[in-house]
Amino acid sequence: MGEMRYTRIRIERPQATVYYSEQEAAEYSRLEITVIRHLYAAQVIRGVEVVEEGRRYSEEDVALLRRVRRLRDDLDINLEGIEVILRLSARLEALEQELEHYRDSGHVLPG
Amino acid sequence: MAEEYKDYYNILGVSSDADAKAIKQAYRKLARQYHPDVNAGDKTSENKFKEINEANEVLSDAEKRKKYDEMRAYYKQYGRWPGEESMAGARAGGSRGGTYEYRTMSPEDLEDLFGDNAPFSDFFETYFGPGASQGNRAGRARQRATRGEDVESTIEVTLAEAYQGVTHTFELADPDGATRRVEVKIPAGVDEGSRIRLAGQGLQGAAGRGDLYLRVHIVPHANFTRDGTTLRTGVDVPLAVAMLGGETPVTTPDGRKLMLHIPEGTTNGRSFRLRSQGMPHLNQPDKRGDLYAEVNVVLPTHLTSEQKRLFEAFAHSLGYK
Fold first, then answer.
1. Which of A111, B71, B193, B205 has the greatest number of CB atoms lying within 10 Å of its CB?
2. What DSSP string runs through B102-164?
């Protein structure tokens, strides 16, 4: 009989992360659960599906939710406006990264 | 040393008898202009917003505002803050501490906006925010630190395993080299990116371990493509079966062979649906999607001279010359 084989997983700090339940995400962002669900459905926050346990949210998702709450409460922007701002911000960030990558690869940008 | 005088009313541009609504309006107006969420990376805006936020923190809280108004009146009369020397002495002795809940922003908000930079002035810290620097790290971070952090790792799952569900044994290796084995049930229907949580198998903290999340990567299959619970596969059908009708086997991911009825005159590329033979729904393993089998008509090659003659006769009967 052959030796039994196992998949080995290293529990290491660089892989450390934090996932929050919906209730925790609401608590740490001070947003209502209905708003969180709306933003998930609108794909503003990504969330992850945990098998047999429902949806959880990453640290980045919760930070984004806090930003949503600040934009709503501090700046009086409605959810639709916030969605537009966040999508444009993400697009801008992606373009900046693309530009940086382009520069790093030695390309000269047209003046 | 005397704390720098902070005229919070002036910072928000409101009179000292402004009501709560006027203060809120003034804060929002200025926040629109200087808020770090809309001025990312702009230090001037950040510093200006710190002042605005601090003024709002005090003036929008009735208790703090009352205290500030009393202090302000005292300052105007005597040119110094009440109890200034004792407060300075207390600060020098490092006696500030304890927790503090901000009214307008959570510790996480302050960390999001200002990182490790102090979000409040010395004046505010001294008179309104004891333990503010500790407060900035309160809440989630401290709570999580005691429990140990979660860890995420990717595991590979074949389509056949995802089709049926499987139990795998994993050997978990801690940073100190200690190992332990755990059996994990991977339920039928898991998909790319699904997470399986193993409670209490993450990093060790003072009050127990965090969780281990196994992120599923589905190994691509040579014969099947998956779209949610729908599976697609190709099925070779001999020319004679396609023309005259018959049956051909379709193999499922778990190795079963289903006989597919091929009606006469079946064209190349036609898809047949095998109802409820696709991927199971996660959490509802009895409910499955459909499997689509796309016909690939296989032409006979290396015809004998007799077969060629017969095929020419057949072609002629269809009007080909």
1. B71
2. -SS--HHHHHHHHTTS-SS-HHHHHHT-TTHHHHTTTTHHHHHHHH--EEEEEEEEEHHHHHH
pLDDT at site A1: 44
Beta bridge partners of B291: B231, B274
Q: What percent of chain B is modeled with pLDDT above 90? A: 55
Q: How far is B262 from B246, CA to CA, in rounded Å?
A: 5
CB contact under 8 A, B140 and A52: no
The verdict on A17 touching B (C-beta cutoff 8 Å) is yes
Q: What domain range is B192 assigned to?
A: 148-219
Burial of B125 (0-12, 13-18, 19+ CB in 10 A): buried
Q: Which of B82, B108, B138 is the last residue of a domain?
A: B138
| pLDDT given for residue B100 in this prediction | 47
Q: Does A104 touch chain B (CB under 8 A)?
A: no
Nearest by CB to residue B171, choosing from A8, A30, A76, is A8
A8/B152 CB distance under 8 A:
no
Global model pTM greater than 0.95: no
As for how many domains chain A has, the answer is 1
Number of other CB atoms surrounding residue B218 within 10 Å: 17
A90 touches chain B (CB under 8 A): no
Q: Give the Cα separation of B273 and B242 in Å (integer).
A: 16
Is A28 an interface residue toward B (CB < 8 Å)? Answer: yes
Domain CATH for B83? 1.10.287.110
Query: Is the pLDDT reported for residue B233 higher than 70?
Result: yes
Q: Do A9 and B212 touch (CB under 8 A)?
A: yes
